[in-house]
Design brief:
Chain A: InterPro entries: FAD/NAD-bd_sf, GMC_OxRdtase_N, GMC_OxRtase_C. The structure holds 2 protein chains of 2 kinds. In chain A, 24% of the residues lie in helices and 17% in strands. By secondary structure, chain A is an alpha/beta fold. In chain A, the strands form 4 sheets. A 6-stranded antiparallel sheet of chain A has the order 4-11-12-13-10-16, covered by helices on one side. The chains are: A alpha/beta, B mainly alpha.
């Protein structure tokens, strides 16, 4: 029962993007009787397209349209055109999503009141609290099938070698909060099979054990007969009427032909680079600085987590690639403790890299025996990704290139990021902690890696209680335009130390409830 | 340190090639990998000369230098030259289509040899001491030629499925049912320490 909506149908909700935010929203809105058109820039891959091959999948599904890394971060040298590692395709970055589904902590929603003023940062509280979001975290954990959570009822992911070696070291140094809440089935669930410990979770789960909107939310939405998915549809601008309400969306199909889809409501869920880029590109005489930008905060406060990575070489084999890619996650350091010399906290996330990516990311630009002597011990390695809170800074953000245009004729995005002083202190602490954890089980060599391109992009259309401080209210509705919403991680007011996907899904469920209600009440 | 558990021992990958060079050639390994078939004459040559003869576009002399350079950039003593050849082969194929790249590579080799002769009165490949060769590479490591070869090798060498077993890496696993029954949790040395 596939729905097909006319371009002139102005009763539909147009959702731009089909990842964690857009895909979830489509599911939740259609379950509530709302008609939606999903415009997805990328192709519609299926599990048949997934390969257990890091580079092949990188080339196949990554968002590789030109972007520029700018600012003070190392990416300007190491990854000048790959500021972020995200996906272009139906299901968006949920294909590449590691599966790690951590909740924010209560203080993450109150960073301004907790930290006070942070020099050089643009910190405010969220307009919602942890308690308000908690029931939606439960729903999100159930939808995504997060292993080991009460809400899902699924058993924990069984420990693999990589988990065991990290957990043993963590316990030895006194860490207590060791867990692995991953959105992958530990028994058949929601029409999908149980995890077979294949690895390659970030290359698209071949059997669909790991949650992705590609084969969970999107097909469910389509089955209702109230959703139409249009892949390879790149949105060029959002149109509005004289009153300033959005009225439709102009997009280019796979052949470059342009179409205008009318809309009652528009929800932007294109990730934290594309979403502000689209709002900025939709500037008009009524909104000369871009849509929903009366605050001037669209595209600002870009956060991508304070990250670092390291490998440890152990005295026995580990084969970290065997089994679920996320290994043990140590969360003791995610708690607040200003005595460490930095604000916020971080998770130490065991994350397996396969050999090709280990070679590429361990010492980017490196060569010689320093590199090869380590790689020869690949089978003995464990690997960590440090994921820590990143401070919002107004000058970090997404801007439009003054002259250079992409294949759609749109100015290419410049992603500017400079570390806050807090980041350096946290990174140092995280790498030292990993070294202790590794050496506790006899690791003979620990190699710090520079951060590799992150998939976590947040903050560029943030929520705020006051319209002057941010772009969105507590429903992800723009302060300026009632029928325009943002539904992805760009809503985040703070980054927390938690991977963003679970929170994006929880917010999308909550937003869908609000939109469906507001439509029924004829408020939008 | 006895393992007291009754579990089977950890499934360990021997990081070796079990195929002899002779067997490899006989089995048509090169041809299967897209490298030109070897003539009888090349079979008579020393291994590195025979391999260098595969550089049809850049020529055997340049090929020999590139093979040595590749090994000096990512030296793995236990891994034979033929994997370095396999790593370089796509670069040569690109050079066949791209004159600028071809010029970068041939001129890069020439410049490296000029530098070698200036310092050591010998071509780069004639320098037996690794430290002498490296002393030259430290001079050129930020240049376009070195950067191009090195950048290519990161994937050319390490993304070659044929070398993966030599690192104890098993590659694609879904078609084998993943690792759920193949040792995802069989680590056996930890209990003695942890």
């Amino acid at each position: 029962m596939k729905a097909k909506f006319s371009l002139d149908d102005d009763g539909v909700v147009v959702i731009i993007g089909s990842g964690a935010g857009g895909g979830t929203l489509a599911d939740e809105l259609t379950q509530r009787g709302v008609n939606v058109v999903i415009l997805e820039a990328g192709k519609h891959y299926t599990q048949a397209d997934f390969e257990n091959d890091e580079w092949a999948m990188f080339k196949k599904i990554s968002w590789l349209d030109k972007r520029i890394s700018a600012g003070g971060w190392h990416h300007t040298e190491t990854y000048p055109n790959l500021p972020a590692w995200i996906v272009k395709g139906v299901g968006g970055s949920t294909m590449h999503f590691s599966g790690l589904a951590l909740r924010f902590l209560p203080h993450d929603f109150k960073t301004r009141s907790t930290y006070g003023e942070v020099k050089g940062a643009n910190v405010i509280d969220w307009p919602i609290s942890y308690d308000e979001l908690a029931p939606y975290y439960d729903i999100a954990e159930r939808k995504m099938g997060v292993a080991g959570t009460k809400a899902s009822g699924l058993p924990e992911m069984p420990p693999n070698n990589h988990y065991k070696v990290i957990a043993a070291g963590a316990k030895k140094v006194g860490y207590k909060d060791i867990s692995r809440p991953v959105a992958s089935n530990t028994r058949p669930n929601d029409g999908r099979p149980a995890c077979q410990q294949i690895g390659f979770c970030m290359q698209g789960c071949k059997i669909g054990a790991k949650w992705s909107t590609l084969y969970s939310e999107i097909p469910r939405a389509i089955e209702t007969g109230r959703a139409e998915l249009r892949p390879q549809s790149m949105v060029l601008r959002i149109e509005h009427d004289k009153s300033g309400k959005v009225s439709g969306v102009l997009y280019a199909d796979k052949d470059g032909r342009q179409h205008l889809q009318k809309a009652r409501v528009v929800c932007v869920a294109g990730n934290s680079i594309e979403s502000p880029r689209l709002l900025l590109n939709s500037a008009s005489s009524l909104f000369p600085n871009g849509l929903a930008n009366s605050s001037g905060q669209v595209g600002k406060n870009y956060m991508n987590h304070t990250t670092a990575a390291a490998v440890a070489i152990h005295k026995g084999p580990v084969y970290m690639y065997r089994g679920f890619d996320i290994a043990a996650v140590i969360s003791d350091e995610a708690q607040l403790n200003p005595d460490r010399g930095f604000l916020g906290g971080y998770h130490l996330e065991g994350l397996a890299l396969h050999l090709p990516f280990t070679a590429a990311f361990m010492k980017p630009g490196g060569w010689g025996r320093e590199v090869t002597s380590a790689l020869e011990q690949y089978d003995h390695m464990s690997c960590v990704w440090v994921c820590g809170e990143d401070m919002p800074q107004e000058e970090n953000g997404i801007t439009l290139h003054p002259t250079e245009k992409d294949q759609y004729g749109l100015p290419i995005p410049i992603v500017t990021k400079t570390d806050h002083t807090n980041d350096a202190a946290m990174r140092r602490h995280g790498l030292a902690a990993w070294r202790k954890v590794s050496e506790a089980v006899g690791a003979t060599r620990v190699i710090d890696m520079p951060p590799y391109p992150a998939s976590h992009n947040m903050g560029t259309n943030r929520m705020s209680a006051n319209a002057r401080d941010g772009v969105l209210n507590k429903w992800g509705q723009t302060h300026d335009i009632k029928n325009l919403f943002v539904s992805d991680g760009s809503q985040f007011t703070s980054s927390s130390a938690a991977n963003p996907t679970l929170t994006i899904v929880a917010l999308a469920v909550r937003q869908a409830e609000y939109i469906a209600g507001a439509m029924q009440r004829r408020e939008i | 340190m006895s393992n007291t558990s009754s579990r089977p021992p950890m499934r360990v990958i021997e990081k070796r090639v079990t195929l002899s060079r002779r067997g490899f050639l006989k089995g048509g390994g090169m041809a299967a990998l897209g490298v030109g078939a070897l003539s009888t004459a090349t079979l008579m040559m020393p291994a590195d000369e025979a391999l260098a003869a595969n550089f049809k576009v850049l020529g055997a002399a340049n090929g020999k230098t590139l093979l040595q350079l590749a090994r000096d950039i990512f030296p793995h003593d236990r891994i034979s030259d033929r994997y370095y050849l396999q790593a370089l082969e796509p670069l040569e194929a690109q050079a066949a289509q791209d004159d600028k790249l071809k010029a970068l590579l041939t001129e890069g080799v020439a410049a490296l040899d000029r530098l070698a002769k200036l310092r050591f009165k010998k071509a780069y490949t004639e320098l037996p001491k690794e430290s002498d060769r490296l002393s030259l590479l430290y001079v050129i490591e930020h240049g376009a030629f070195f950067q191009k070869v090195k950048g290519h090798l990161v994937t050319g060498f390490y993304d070659n499925k044929a070398v993966w077993p030599l690192f104890g890496y098993e590659g694609s696993s879904w078609e084998k049912g993943g690792y759920i029954n193949r040792g995802f949790d069989d680590i056996d040395w930890l209990d003695n320490d942890a």
